[in-house]
Amino acid sequence: MAAHVSTGNIHNFYLAGQVYRGQAFSWSSASTFMANPFKEPSWSSGVFKALKAERCGCYSRGISPISETSKPIRAVSVSSSTKYYDFTVIGSGVAGLRYALEVAKQGTVAVITKDEPHESNTNYAQGGVSAVLCPLDSVESHMRDTMVAGAHLCDEETVRVVCTEGPERIRELIAMGASFDHGEDGNLHLAREGGHSHCRIVHAADMTGREIERALLEAVLNDPNISVFKHHFAIDLLTSQDGLNTVCHGVDTLNIKTNEVVRFISKVTLLASGGAGHIYPSTTNPLVATGDGMAMAHRAQAVISNMEFVQFHPTALADEGLPIKLQTARENAFLITEAVRGDGGILYNLGMERFMPLYDERAELAPRDVVARSIDDQLKKRNEKYVLLDISHKPREKILAHFPNIASECLKHGLDITRQPIPVVPAAHYMCGGVRAGLQGETNVLGLFVAGEVACTGLHGANRLASNSLLEALVFARRAVQPSTELMKRTRLDVCASEKWTRPVVATARLLGDEVIAKIIALTKEVRRELQEVMWKYVGIVRSTIRLTTAERKIAELEAKWETFLFEHGWEQTVVALEACEMRNLFCCAKLVVSSALARHESRGLHYMTDFPFVEESKRIPTIILPSSPTTASWSSRRLQNISSSSLIDC
């Protein structure tokens, strides 16, 4: 059953398409969370402190605790389809790689990545990493900027931890070989972006994520304790029940190149799989960002939080405004970094009227949610497709030095940003919600940690401050290391436990026939486009209850149509294929966003409701989605594998 903890003392429950009323939950419950409107939302108290105490004996079935002096296992492959590691890391962005490098000092690590190792949201991050590195700046100032941008829904303890530990995480990256821009004085060049009161953005021109990914990936590939499995799509987490606790034992994956299911059994699993930008038709995220981690975690009984807060970056390149049109549509929108506005870029409508001062006194330096809504309002009022971002009044050499990647991309299509304004439009960019995590990346699923965009740590609140995402990923990847290694040392692997879970079956021509597979792939592509259009039209930058309920209905109908077709053509619960598995994850994440949005009856940060246009202090609490019932859920919300707890004991 999924419960949406929305506002006040009465909460909404969502079960099989109907909404029920219930009483507030208790923090002391092992699988529920309480929302208290009279207190700051605390992400590290209550259930997470209880979980830390319970971890001592959490692997009593199949994978059992042993002494603290136990040695890490060598990477074992009993068969080509089952592999055993101390740690499994799902995702190869900054969070996954940084964590892998640390835990590899204690044991063997499998890094599972859906595409090439560098193909992650990290690689596309342009702006930089925010950290207090200037004597004129302070942790308190960075905290205040984060809280204001997050519409005061951020967890203050989390914010303090991240802002305090950030500078040391930057120094570690530099020590590992990451190269950032320096000023004429020889010190790090610190840029300023929207929502920041000081210059605190460490960057490598406008390709910061690429440089960080390069340095981390180089170190990972040179580490003998780390094995990288590229082109492995994570299907579902392997879990069992230990009393009331859900325990994670690893993950099933699909080797996309060989069409083989590969099972990874591990003592600890880190989920660092990124976001879900492709639930929308236009996103700055790479194609791999289909919400796989959030959907897997939800199916594995993890608690999900704040999914209504989808950040639309105000300034993605509007291709239709370029002088030379693209031959084929982009797979993902090209980002125009926040730093362009931070460097003095000005936003105009097509009538060359500057409009941001009409909406916010901070003008172009307002937080992203404000700027995105302002652009959206201009486009609707003027019936235009894009606005213009102009940096051409700045010296040419500085523009080219600070934004070489943007300048190069625009010039390919006939636009010189040193002389002409850039056509821009908002695009889905970042999920502020995700798998609810404590201060060490722990979740309510024992043995499962999360870091990066897939996690909801409480840092971002209702809207992420620019360049806080890479920072959060670095800090939480590092904080998850100690509890992970402690758990690994007191846990042993039961090799024979692997066969206790039903194995997924790959959809092949032999199983379904060439014609059926072709029809399923074609329908899946069509349904994916339809889902994205529904999300953009009804669950976009500006929302209403009517639009959200319409989206909920349309998504349910679309999902039912798709699943009915699959199962009428020989598909079964355990059958897998890349396109179908991505589609089930997109459906799952879309429903999580819509359900969360319907539960919040106010406008806060990224969530703007025309029928609830104001911020309500009593509603300054996180939105919570509790695990769904596997018996009533659709295929997108059910795990593929089945397991009985008794079968694990028998092994």
From TrEMBL:
It is found in: Plastid, Chloroplast. Pathway: Cofactor biosynthesis; NAD(+) biosynthesis; iminoaspartate from L-aspartate (oxidase route): step 1/1. Its cofactor is FAD. It holds the Pfam family FAD_binding_2. Catalyzes the oxidation of L-aspartate to iminoaspartate. This is L-aspartate oxidase. One of its GO terms (biological process) is NAD+ biosynthetic process. It comes from the Eukaryota. GO terms for molecular function: L-aspartate oxidase activity. It comes from Arabidopsis thaliana x Arabidopsis arenosa. NCBIfam families: nadB. Residues 528-613 form the Fumarate reductase/succinate dehydrogenase flavoprotein-like C-terminal domain. GO terms for cellular component: chloroplast. It catalyses: L-aspartate + O2 = iminosuccinate + H2O2. Its EC number is 1.4.3.16. The lineage of its organism: Eukaryota, Viridiplantae, Streptophyta, Embryophyta, Tracheophyta. Belongs to the FAD-dependent oxidoreductase 2 family. NadB subfamily.
